Structures are given as C-alpha cells and as structure tokens.
Amino acid sequence: MNTDSLPQEIQQLVKNNQYKHEHFQDLIRDGGYMPPNEELIIDAITALSMGKNILLKGPTGAGKTKFAETLSSLFQQPMFSVNCSVDLDAESLMGFKTLSYENDKQTIDFVPGPVTNSMKHGTFLYIDEINMAKPETLPLINGVLDYRRTITNPFTNEIITAQEQFGVIAAINEGYIGTVPLNEALKNRFIVIDVPYIQGDQLKQLISNSTKLEDETLINLFVTLSKDLITAVEQGKLSEDAASIRALLDACDLTTFIPPKRAILRAIVDKLDEDREKAFVQNLADTLFD
Asked: What Pfam family is a match for this entry (predicted)?
C-alpha cells in the first residue's frame, strides 16, 4: 500500500506536510474521529502507506474503532472486521463450509470470512480487541501479518496471497477483564499507536458533532466531567469504564430528553460494578449539574 491509495487532495496535503491544513482537518472530521494530536493521524497514515500493520492501544471508549473507520475513509478503503473473544476460532477468521443445493443436488460451498475477504479484495482488515482471543488462535494469521501476506486456508487448502491494497488495523485494551498479554511474535508484527482520551476543545467539538446536545453550557459541563473522570482514573480512583468517551456521548444524547444527572446515572454510573465508584461519579455529577 502507498499514498496512491489516498484521495488526490489528501495525497497533496500529506506530501506537503500540511497536516494542520484546515481542509485536512475537515476531511478527518468527516471520518468521525479527531485525534487528540496530529501525530497520531500522521503516524497511522505513514505506517499504513508503507504496508505496515498498526495496533491502536488505549483505554475503552477512547475512540479506537472510530479511528480505524476514519483511516478507512481517508484511504477510501472498505474494511472487514473481526471481533475477538475467547470463542474466536479459525472459522471466525477464514470462513466456513456449508451445505447448499444446486439443481436438487447437494453441494458443499465455502463462505469466506473477514480475513479471506479482506485479502482477496485488497481492503483493510480490522481486528478489534485482539488480546481477547485465545493465544493459540492468532498464530494462524502470522503469515498474513508479516512480509509474506500469505495464508493457507485450512478448510480449502487454497493458498491466499493478499492483494496490494490490503492492510491490517488492530485494537487492544490492556488490562481489561478477559484479556491476555500479546506474545512477542504477534506484537512485533505491528506498529503501536497509543490512543488517549479526547479532551478539551476536541471533546467539545466531538459532542457538538456526534450528539444531539446543543446547549453550550451543558456541553462545557460534560467536558469538565470528562476531565474529572479521566483524572480519577489516572489516580486509580476509578476504573477505565467510568471515563469512556462513548458512555459520555450517550449521556449527552440522553440529556436532550432527561435531566443530566439521570442521564449520567443511566449511561455511566449504572455500568460500574463497585458501589464506591458509583458514589464517586454521582458525587461529581451532583457537583457540576444542578
């Protein structure tokens, strides 16, 4: 993959290092994600343009999936997705065989999975929560992730070599319940990009663009709430779930119809497991919102 995959207008801005150009920022915004700093988008575009795999690492709700979707939009690339879990197996990655009928005769067809589809069509493959998969499952795609870009389909014995535009974006939530550390062989196949929470003016803009909330005073209060939650997470007072930007946006949406404190209760507080954390967040909400 190279920058020729990017739209002409993006190519020119990238070649001229005009990442702060207003038009470039507008194009990023159209994809749905504004990175906290320009280096994130620069480095991601650079790595993907060079045919590297990228691993988006950050807390839950920080916008990693939106980041991947924005990159897909910038490169004008469709994206097939794998959602990892302990149940992930070869069929979930490669596809499966199924019985069908043709002229009243039974046949066996192969239904391609996301890895097969993305390699054959030359599109992006997005592997979400890659460290939720069992360690013995992912080595199947090691050859897909290195210079070979090749895999033997275990169900058909077909040797698949990825088309030129194929690229891999993965996401990881470290320390999350049910996750396991990535082994070094897998981690070394990625360029790692840390994705922090969006804060300040960028979060204000995200709320304005992505939710139904229009009241500027309330938007500013939610930005302050987010900052306080992130600080509490960094100090070890709250789990990462409490500071999820996704949950905050849900609360903003609900606030257009119900009182803010009740919206925060439904979208953030009630998702927490510990009564201590629930009380902490509720206290922050009581302090900020009448």
From this structure: AAA_5
